[in-house]
Specification:
Layout (H helix, E strand, L loop, with lengths): L15 H24 L4 H37 L4 H30 L8 H26 L4 H17 L1
Helix pairs in contact: 1-2, 1-4, 2-3, 2-5, 3-4
Length: about 170
Amino acid sequence: MSTIRLGPKPAADETPAGLVLDCHARIRSFSGLAVTLATAAAPDAEIADAATRVHRYFTQALPLHVADEEQSLAPRLRRYAPEVMAALADMEREHRDHESALAGLIAAWASIADDPGRRAASAEAAARLRAELERHLAAEEQLVVPTVARLPADEQRAILDEMRARRRKA
């Protein structure tokens, strides 16, 4: 019996930049899983399970990541690293764009979890989302994430505290 599973969770780098990169790895994994579940030859139960996990990730975990970037990272980067202002504006605009792209897919994944036979309809949209997310993540990793790593230590500690608090509330 084959399953659609993610690999083991890597050890986290307990810095804001490291945690953002860990989140990016999970975004890549789940967007890849979304494409795979739409096209894989697998038993219905495995497809339904994958759809449930993808739905849960994009409705629960991804919004926390977006909040981390927009509420914890961006304000500090604007204060300490004005050279990334354009990148931050792009990041926030793309987050809004992703929300609209995700809306239909979130409904589709919930439907697929109930009826795996409906999965083929999500293939094109899932592939498009994966490509959009990859461009977005690569851009962040080129400029935003390295800049986060250069923030003062007290700001990085404050970011970590905020990220952890956000997850405790979730």
